[in-house]
């Protein structure tokens, strides 16, 4: 698209107004400046036309994060009754080049919401996650798709495959929690017991991986189970001479819960571990463990 074409003869461009004495004017590309000048003119008239649609595409080429342009493009697409499946292909190409651009993901969400058809979405997201399994925007969008279109059935299997591939994928652990506890079908006690066993095995594989530790604590809290069930795991790691601040921290939680019920021996053991963590094994969180020690002393 050329901005000098006759198609724009009736439009008077509106330059950007930075005021009489701008402190640090941005040196925009000449073509981008022209495109934005025309955009100000047509948006002022709320023009929704083919040429306006082409103009938004040109601006997006220069600045794919321009939220206002994407919003205006949506209005044009809907007003002209354009083929939104073709637009999905357009935005797919954009996301392939800019996979962590929030505006692109939001635009796709608007389109899918309008179409009421998510049949292409999970395969598309899988492609993106195959390139970067921790793309926050892709995961956020995936959760929206699953909740909006009730696509829960195969999600746990999908997460299993990701964790089998990389047990340290914190995004997959987060998705696992989402899949189990945000699903309208609530997990049974039997399922949760199996899930705890599953996570324990993953922790044994990588005892210094914080993600499954956080996950299993979340399950225990959500299902009102007793954190004491993790004592055996923590002791097993300790007996293997593996220094895991996460296992030691879990023992602090366990001993504190018992100390609150009057166990002096567990209170002293918890204080001892807090000191070890603060001075030796988790010094970056020294202040935190000193705080936990103060709590134990006060019990």
From TrEMBL:
EC code(s) of this entry: 2.5.1.58, 2.5.1.59
| Gene3D superfamilies in the record | Protein prenylyltransferase
Keyword annotations for this protein? Magnesium, Prenyltransferase, Repeat, Transferase
Pfam families according to UniProt: PPTA (PF01239)
Cofactors: Mg(2+)
Where, by residue number, does the polypeptide cross the bilayer?
none
Q: What GO cellular-component annotations does this UniProt entry give?
A: CAAX-protein geranylgeranyltransferase complex; protein farnesyltransferase complex
The UniProt similarity line reads: Belongs to the protein prenyltransferase subunit alpha family.
Name of this protein: Protein farnesyltransferase/geranylgeranyltransferase type-1 subunit alpha
> What does the record give as the organism's lineage?
Eukaryota, Fungi, Fungi incertae sedis, Mucoromycota, Glomeromycotina
């Amino acid at each position: 698209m050329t901005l000098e074409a006759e198609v724009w003869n009736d439009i008077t461009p509106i330059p950007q107004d930075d005021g009489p004495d701008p402190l640090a004017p941005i040196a925009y590309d000449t073509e981008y400046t022209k495109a934005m000048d025309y955009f100000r003119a047509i948006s002022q008239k709320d023009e929704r036309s083919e040429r306006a649609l082409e103009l938004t595409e040109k601006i997006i080429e220069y600045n794919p994060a321009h939220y206002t342009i994407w919003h205006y493009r949506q209005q044009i697409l809907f007003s002209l009754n354009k083929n939104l499946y073709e637009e999905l292909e357009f935005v797919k190409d954009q996301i392939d080049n800019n996979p962590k651009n929030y505006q692109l993901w939001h635009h796709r969400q608007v389109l899918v919401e309008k179409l009421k058809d998510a049949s292409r979405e999970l395969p598309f997201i899988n492609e993106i996650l195959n390139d970067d399994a921790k793309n926050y925007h892709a995961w956020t969008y995936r959760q929206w798709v699953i909740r909006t279109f009730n696509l829960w059935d195969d999600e746990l299997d999908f997460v299993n495959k990701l964790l089998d591939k990389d047990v340290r994928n914190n995004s997959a652990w987060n998705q696992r929690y989402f899949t189990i506890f945000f699903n309208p079908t609530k997990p049974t006690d039997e399922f949760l017991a199996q899930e705890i066993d599953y996570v324990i095995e993953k922790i044994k594989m990588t005892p210094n991986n914080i993600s499954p530790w956080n996950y299993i604590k979340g399950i225990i809290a959500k299902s009102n189970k007793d954190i004491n069930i993790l004592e055996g795991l923590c002791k097993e790691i300790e007996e293997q001479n593996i220094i895991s601040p996460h296992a030691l921290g879990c023992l602090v939680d366990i001993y504190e819960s018992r100390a609150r019920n009057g166990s002096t021996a567990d209170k002293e053991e918890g204080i001892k571990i807090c000191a070890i963590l603060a001075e030796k094994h988790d010094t970056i969180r020294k202040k935190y463990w000193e705080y936990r020690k103060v709590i134990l002393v006060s019990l």
